[in-house]
What does this fold into?
Amino acid sequence: MTAEITPLIAGNWKMNGTSVALAEVRNLAARLAEGGPPRCTIVICPPATLLERLSEFAAPAGIVTGGQDCHPALSGAHTGDISAQMLADAGAQYTIVGHSERRTNHRETDELVRLKALAAMAANLIPIICVGETEADRDAGRAESVVASQLAGSIPDEWAGQGIVIAYEPVWAIGTGRTPTAADIEQMHNAIRRDLVTRFGDRGAATRILYGGSMKPSNAAEILRIENVNGGLVGGASLLANDFHAIISAV
Ligand code: 13P
It folds into this structure.
């Protein structure tokens, strides 16, 4: 990891969790209270239905919350969508944008992701902008160029507030139990860092780059040790307090 950047461990609950799941966060909060102050920022991105409740009781435990997506517009006739301002109003400080599941299931383009990131920043949220190659891209040797093109199209030129977070999530590693080798993660994160520095200078050098895709207690320490890995975006393993706490403790 890069010493001067505070790491961030974010849990993405995806479409999982009803009121019952809040008990896991209480459990996590209790475990955090037992140890010393965590050496990272802890974010949980629950389903929107739990955001407000979770934000209220997680804050005293030092856990902040985020949305999983937002609409590019401030408000309007967009049935079923949620705006960045609504997420902020419900207590969120972050929001994921451009997750590969949204890019695939909802055909989201880099341009739409860029507009969502802008909307997030306009609402004082920090967008966690996701990028990552498919298995076919990697097999064809174009993983880095695909990610570079996603970064070019998805990151706005103008940043507001506290800037952005990038999450590198190889699509083939999400929910599969498979992860790239440490060398492959390092190569991609270094490439992302070079890109950010070339485009944004010091702000690019200070931007957190998270790794996501089958991060779990058994591999977190190894992954979090890699240069330019400034935290993780955790799916399945963020649903259980024990596993998520173990990953936080691995920082
Ligand atoms: P898993 O940790 O379940 O592989 O999911 C990763 C992810 O998509 C987080 O956004």
About this structure: The chain has a mean pLDDT of 96. The longest strand covers residues 126-131. The pocket of 1,3-dihydroxyacetonephosphate is lined by residues 12, 99, 169, 174-175, 212-215, 233-237 (CB under 6 Å).
